[in-house]
Amino acid sequence: MSTQYRTIQNSFIGGLLSALQEGAVGSAAYSSGLSIAENVLYDTASVFRRYGTKFGTMAKSADSVFFRYWKSEDEIYMLECWDKGARLISRDGKAASNEVVTPYLASELRTLSVVSNMGELYVVHRNHKPAKMTVTEPETEGSLLVLSAPVDIAFVAAVPKPETPQDGDDWTVAKTFDSPGDYPSEQLFYGGRWWLMSTDNDPLMIWGSRTMDAATGTYRFNDFTLEEWHALKLETEEAPSEEEMTAADCAIAYQSSDMYGTRIRWALSHQSFLVGAGMSIYQYTGGAAISAVPAEGVSTFSLTQAVALGASGDKAVAYNSYVFFAGIGGHSLMCMNYSQQYSSYTGTDISVPVADYLRAGIKTICITEGSPAVVWVLTNDGKLLACSFSDTAGMIAWSIIRFTDDDHPLWIEAMESDVSRYATLFLVMDRAGKNTIETLEMVPGGAAYSVPFLDCYTISPEIDDEGMICLPELAERSVEMVESIEDSASGIRYSASLTGEADEDGYITLDSRFAQQAEEGTTITAGLKYMMIIGTLRSELPANGTSQSALRVIKNVTFRLYNSLGGNVTIRPSTTVGAFDRSKLEDEARPVLYRRYGEFRYGELEELFTGDISTSYKSSNTDDDRVAIYSDSPYPFCICALIIDHSIQEG
User: Fold this and answer.
1) 3-state secondary structure 537-559
2) Residue of 47, 62, 206, 185 lying closest to 112 (CA atoms)
3) DSSP state of 109
4) What superkingdom heads the lineage (predicted)?
5) By C-alpha distance, which of 628, 614, 630, 631 is closest to 538?
6) What percent of the chain is modeled with pLDDT above 70?
7) What is the 3-state secondary structure (H, E, C) of 7-47?
8) Rounded distance, CA 103 to CA 149, Å?
């Protein structure tokens, strides 16, 4: 005797859930969650195969790190820094400037602070004097940008003396950050001031520069003079004209006795001035017009506790009303939400589902804007995690990003979108010992079919007479090749794929069918394969007595797909709760959707599928009714809903 039940999962915004959460059957996250989520991204309506990365150029070093540089509103670059060197990288991952020599060692790069302001780069580190780098246009059109080496900033050492000083006149020496122990480790531009903070001698101290000189319209970022000579009284009629300083003219020095922690970890301009230090996060709530009182040397600037969440690491990232940062110890990702109504923050740990992956500690985080946005987390042992985030949909959906067995990321940074391009993730990759710079463009989920699904892919403009293409960056690697065609009605469609082994020179011989039919100028997309895998949670069937102590048999799985091709489904290949053996993925696997095989014409469009596809299983007893869905072919695969028919057999 058997009873039939049908379960429907039409949302995946719960994302990856840890084994500990597989018992939370009454939660909203359980009903929309997954037990496996590898190489997938989410939108509010579906889960889809992630995009492939695009090869830009070879990284200068395995220690290379990125910092965003805003040249103008429409020109954004990455500053690649390596041991005693730096250069600019364009949005497509290519070198965009000359290389310059810097004093920053490889061991210092992770704690380097680089901020762009008014087209210039300001650099601070606790072991070096604050410096500035400039970028100028090349003399020849089409040439690389001209990047200058870091130049130490000359700070105002003292207030100029009046021409005819009188008794009682005074002036003070400004903070100049020019001695070991007095070099700041963090910086921020906020309220028209340059804020420097956390030196070795004063790890919880914050200094703010003077503001704009109203007479000349120039900023005084290099002037940290707290008070100027005043009350000058001259008996002569030709007294020197000296501008009286107001409260806002003075620089600021601030230290809070309540700011617990060994040193300031990071600073961020968000809804307010935010500082992460030790056991709590602090905020300035007085508005942008920060002032000081020269006569007393006391500022009206002060910080109050925003949330009692500890900070670790040297970076925080913001998106809309949210701030993300590594928690105490660097083993958790914390999220703070700003309330406009109460002008305050609330915070929580959002990394519970992936806590096991963060044991090695968070190396760096970044965020790519979009709908949803994605918070990227790179761990010290090379794991890359993605958290799709939407405040309007209440979505916090985690997934794991895996590459081939010998490859892993070394550094990540995000670049904002501009008028013509979506937000982009930059990666420094270790590709079997070779270091590459790669980019991953965050197109919307509904347009995912329009980008290649191969990692580190390279575009070859033509095929030679012998049917060979050369991919030196992927030399000695097994690659997949997919011919892409632009179709005005339906976007890019993928017609055929072929796996090939590259020789030591990076040459790959194409199948004779390609070579014979390919025309001059044909574009071949070639790169490294990766596998997408998702797994469902155990279905909770009606507790009416018929399903208790019963054997569960999956009879049919129906997929609601959007613009998809390929894919396979299998009963989850595990007899141990929580275990997952990838080597058994193909056991009893059923194709979700067949591709056409056999003879084909080169360049023939292969239509993508939108609709319902079902696959059936023969009856067999099992006590685990979870399924695994995977795709190892470089094609789009987007799932909007899963419908599973169960047969409950009395045991």
Assistant:
1) CCCCCCCCCCCCCEEEEEEEEEE
2) 185
3) G
4) Bacteria
5) 628
6) 78
7) EEECCCCCEECCHHHHHCCCCHHHHCEECEEECEEEECCEE
8) 9
- How many DSSP H helices and E strands does the chain contain? 2, 51
Question: CB–CB of 492/483 below 8 Å?
Answer: no
Q: How confident is the model at residue 494 (pLDDT cuts 50, 70, 90)?
A: low
Six-digit token string for 224: 């940290």
Place of tokens 């904002």: 416
- Region for residue 376 given its phi and psi (left: phi exceeds 0; alpha: psi -120 to 50; beta: otherwise): beta
Please state the separation of Cα 419 from the chain's center in Å.
20
Element (H, E) at 516: helix 512-517
Which stretches of 294-383 are assigned E, i.e. beta strand? 298-299, 304-307, 316-319, 322-326, 333-339, 344-349, 362-368, 373-379
Query: Do residues 319 and 367 touch, judged by C-beta distance below 8 A?
Result: yes
Among residues 462, 420, 421, 471, the alpha carbon closest in space to that of 441 is found at 421
At 548 the pLDDT is 54
Euclidean distance between the first and final Cα of the chain, in Å? 10
pLDDT in the model for residue 132: 97
Q: What is the residue-wise DSSP string for 545-611?
A: SSSTTEEEEEEEEEEEEEEE---EEEE---SSTT---GGGTTTT-EESSPPP-SS--TT-----EEE
Please give the radius of gyration of the chain, using alpha carbons only, rounded to the nearest integer.
Answer: 29
What are the tens digits of pLDDT across the range 386-417? 999 988 777 889 999 999 888 999 999 999 98
Burial of 531 (0-12, 13-18, 19+ CB in 10 A): middle
Nearest Cα neighbor of 531 from 580, 461, 485 is: 580
In contact, 268 and 323? CB cutoff 8 Å? yes
pLDDT of res. 600:
46
Residues 6+ apart with CB under 8 A from 239: 232
Count of Cβ atoms closer than 10 Å to residue 98 Cβ: 16
Q: Which residues contact 323 (CB under 8 A, 6 or more apart)?
A: 268, 270, 274, 316, 317, 335, 336, 338, 345
Q: Which residue type, as a one-letter code, is found at position 318? A: A
Mean pLDDT (the chain) is: 82
pTM of the model: 0.91
Distances (CA, A) of 394 to 12, 20, 28, 339, 397: 12, 21, 11, 16, 10
Q: Which of 307, 284, 153, 271 is nearest to 223 (CA)?
A: 153
Pick the more confident residue, 2 or 470: 470
Q: What are phi and psi of 316, to 5 degrees?
A: -135, 150
Given a contact cutoff of 8 angstroms between Cβ atoms, the answer to whether 649 and 621 are in contact is: yes
Q: CB within 8 A of 300, min separation 6: which ones?
A: 247, 286, 290, 291, 292, 293
Confidence of residue 102 (pLDDT cuts 50, 70, 90): very high
Nearest to 513 by CA among 551, 581, 463: 463
Within 8 A by CB and 6+ apart from 586, the residues are 568, 570
pLDDT of residue 216: 86
Q: Which amino acid does the sequence have at 75?
A: E
Strand order in the sheet with 193-197: 186-190, 193-197, 205-208, 252-255
Confidence label for 66 from pLDDT (cuts 50, 70 and 90)? very high
The closest alpha carbon to 632, from 443, 497, 460, 476, belongs to 497
Highest mean pLDDT of the ranges 39-43, 161-165, 284-288: 39-43
